[in-house]
């Protein structure tokens, strides 16, 4: 703990919101939307003692109802409240944000992340230790978006050759193409590679039951969000009928959602993402509920750079109920504007031990974003 800091007197002296646009190598498609550029938001929190915190959010409009412009507008709403506040009062700040703007989870997650970066830097601890976690192995999958089945097979083989043992496959638009995509992938990589599938709400309950039964021949670990979020009973029915476990994703935003999903026995697995929970504070609450309900969980991502992914990996170490990791979005990016942060080799994530998140944007890249500071 840094004894030179007056912790009660610590204040937020300034906060900046940036358009953080990251081009992708190629168009990334899922059932609900597609993108060629990750239109992320970047938050910089400055303090009166010189400690700087960084946070990132990746708004997927079809999943969280938020675009980059909406997120930046929310930042303008929050800035007057944040200035002069003690950044260590994370609980009070998060409660205010949730009450002031009940939605806007992506922007709130970026602010929350920056606050935790400040707090763990002030404590001179890597974030995972600050959250009470400890080091353990982290193995991530790598994702294949919607594409032609033959192309999916080629991509899967390339991913296997990169050393990954787990491949996540996007499905949900065309049943015949989905099956063919999995067949090409399975034939290319063999049974030793674990497959995870994600329909992104693309099926109704009967299509989901039919499709998942057809996929029994493949080595599938679980299926994320087969049915629309407004059909919780449908997801529950599919879960009861399928031999492939179901993971709640878009139906899990809040701690309240977590309680409801467990109480109603909807799905045996959870996918926790900062862009849905509104950040680390609420993600910790969701993980604790999952832990109490014996629901193994995954920490996932949208299209964050290694800044957001590093924070997510730190969080993933905070509770052993988080058993699965889907932290690969930066591998789709054509540039890497982050210094420090996680590295991946053969699918295994190495996390920095420097104070805070241990990752920050390259200063020269930030200068190119400067004209897009909102306030």
Automatic annotation (TrEMBL):
Segments forming domain Mandelate racemase/muconate lactonizing enzyme C-terminal: 149-245
Domain of life: Bacteria
Binding site for Mg(2+): 198, 224, 249
MF annotations from Gene Ontology: magnesium ion binding; racemase and epimerase activity, acting on amino acids and derivatives
Cited SMART domains: MR_MLE
Active-site residues, record numbering mapped to chain: 170, 273
Pfam families listed in its UniProt record: MR_MLE_C, MR_MLE_N
Keyword list, A-Z: Isomerase, Magnesium, Metal-binding
InterPro entries membership: Dipeptide_epimerase, Enolase-like_C_sf, Enolase-like_N, Enolase_C-like, Mandelate_racemase_C, Mandelate_racemase_N_dom
UniProt-listed CDD domains: L-Ala-DL-Glu_epimerase (cd03319)
Cofactor section: Mg(2+)
Annotated EC: 5.1.1.-
Cofactor note: Binds 1 Mg(2+) ion per subunit.
Biological process per Gene Ontology, one example term: peptide metabolic process
Family classification: Belongs to the mandelate racemase/muconate lactonizing enzyme family.
Protein name per Swiss-Prot or TrEMBL: Dipeptide epimerase
High-level lineage: Bacteria, Pseudomonadati, Bacteroidota, Saprospiria, Saprospirales
């Amino acid at each position: 703990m840094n004894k030179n800091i007056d912790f009660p007197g610590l204040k937020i002296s300034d906060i900046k919101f940036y358009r953080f646009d990251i081009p992708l190598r190629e168009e990334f498609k899922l059932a609900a939307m597609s993108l060629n550029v990750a239109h992320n938001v970047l938050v910089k929190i400055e303090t009166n003692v010189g400690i700087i915190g960084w946070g990132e959010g990746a708004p997927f409009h079809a999943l969280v109802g938020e675009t980059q412009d909406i997120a930046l507008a929310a930042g303008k709403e929050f800035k007057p409240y944040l200035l002069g506040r003690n950044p260590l009062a994370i609980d009070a700040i998060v409660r205010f944000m949730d009450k002031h703007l009940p939605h806007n989870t992506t922007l709130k997650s970026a602010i929350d992340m920056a606050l935790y970066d400040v707090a763990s830097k002030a404590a001179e601890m890597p974030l995972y230790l600050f959250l009470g976690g400890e080091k353990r192995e982290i193995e991530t999958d790598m994702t294949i978006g919607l594409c032609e089945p033959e192309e999916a097979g080629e991509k899967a083989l390339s991913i296997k050759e990169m050393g990954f043992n787990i491949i996540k496959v996007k499905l949900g638009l065309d049943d015949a193409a989905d099956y063919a995509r999995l067949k090409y992938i399975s034939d290319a990589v063999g049974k030793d590679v674990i497959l995870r599938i994600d329909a992104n709400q693309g099926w109704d309950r009967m299509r989901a039951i039919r499709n998942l039964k057809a996929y029994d021949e493949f080595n599938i670990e679980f299926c994320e969000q087969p049915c629309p979020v407004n059909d919780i009973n449908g997801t529950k029915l599919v879960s009861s009928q399928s031999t492939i476990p179901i993971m709640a994703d878009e139906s899990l935003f809040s701690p309240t959602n977590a309680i409801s999903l467990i109480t109603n026995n909807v799905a045996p697995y959870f996918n926790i993402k900062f862009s849905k929970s509104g950040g680390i504070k609420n993600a910790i609450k969701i993980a604790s509920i999952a832990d109490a309900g014996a629901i193994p969980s995954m920490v996932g991502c949208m299209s964050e750079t290694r800044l957001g992914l590093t924070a997510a990996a730190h969080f993933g170490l905070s509770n052993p109920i988080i058993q699965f990791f889907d932290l690969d979005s930066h591998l789709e990016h054509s540039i890497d504007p982050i210094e420090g942060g996680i590295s991946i080799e053969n699918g295994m994530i190495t996390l920095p031990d420097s104070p805070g998140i241990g990752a920050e944007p390259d200063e020269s890249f930030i200068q190119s974003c400067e004209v897009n500071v909102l306030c």
